[in-house]
Each structure stands twice: as structure tokens, then as C-alpha cells.
Amino acid sequence: MEALFKQMEDFAKENKVPIINENGRKVFIEIIKKYKPQRVLEIGTAIGYSALLTTYYGAENAKIISLELDEERAKQAQDFINQSAYREQIKIILGDAAKNIEKLDKNYKFDMVFIDAAKGQYPDYLQKVLPLLADDGIILADNVLFRGYVMSEEKPPRRYKTIVKRLREYIAMVSDTDKFTTEIFENGDGLALTKRLKTN
User: Fold this and answer.
1) Least buried of 43, 81, 92, 122, by fewest C-beta within 10 Å?
2) How much is the pLDDT for 22?
3) What is the pTM of this model?
4) What keywords tag this UniProt record (predicted)?
């Protein structure tokens, strides 16, 4: 697998495909090793890199449903996945993630949801995945600090204004201590690990 991961990292670099960066990756892998998720929902496949990391480091028979909007990326991801031993464990669903989340079976509960797609949609994704999350499930969201702008007093460039606003909303939502516990790892571009609190 190391050769395949290296191939994917090189491809992502050459083609400017955003994958979880080196610093964030270390934290991501540690979390996967710790929680060993069995049923995973991934929002944003890109080239399939994080899906393969999850199957490689996660539970032995982990099953991943990965949602991807871009047809070209989905094809590229499938090509890489087909080169691995995990091709039967990862299913890519093409189309708008927000719509496809709502079509998923509500009785099938996920141990982990990984959000790494359109940053401006994070609050919406969160609301939509909560009914699908197992009681002791976790939500991981990448890029929540978005280039340092989210926690900065400095005004973001106009083109990032909405993204930064929505990511702040997302952080505020998962920081609601009546509902969640959230830890934000600043490695990489900010990885938020959220657990839902049990209600009596």
C-alpha cells in the first residue's frame, strides 16, 4: 500500500488535488487507529486517498460510502481504489452530497463521518448526517481553520468570506457543550473531532 499511497500523493501534488496534508494526515491516521470505524460515510472522495487510509488503518472489514460531486475525480478515485485490496469495501456515489445524504438508509448507522468537501456546506452537512450517526459515532471535519482565517481577527479576502463565515458557524455548532464534545487539532489546516454526548 505504501507505493500506492506515494503514487496518489504525487498525483495530487502534480494535479493540485486537495488531499489531507502531511501534518493533518498523522492526526487522521491516529484517530482511525484509535476508533477503528467499521461503517464510514465520507463526504468528498477527491482521488480516494482518505478512503484508502481509512480502510488500511481502520477496522478489518470497514465499509465506506464516499460521496463525490466531480465525475472526473470519482473516476480517478475508482482507478486508484481498484489497485488496492479494498475495492469491495469502498463505494463511491456520484452527485450532490447534500442530496445524496438524504437518500441514504436512515437505519444504517455510521461509526464515523468524515467531512472534506465544499467548506461552505459544512453546517448543512452536519445537520444532515446527525440522524445517520451511531450513538458512539464520531465526526471528523477537515480544513476547519481554513488557512488560519477562521480563528484570526484579520479579515479574510472577499473570495473566502462566505467559507470562513460558514466554518465559524460549523465550529460554533459542534462547540455546543450540551450536545457535543469537540477537539480541534491545528496540525495541517485544522481537523475537528466531534463526539455526540449521550442524552438520558
Assistant:
1) 92
2) 83
3) 0.94
4) Magnesium, Metal-binding, Methyltransferase, S-adenosyl-L-methionine, Transferase, tRNA processing
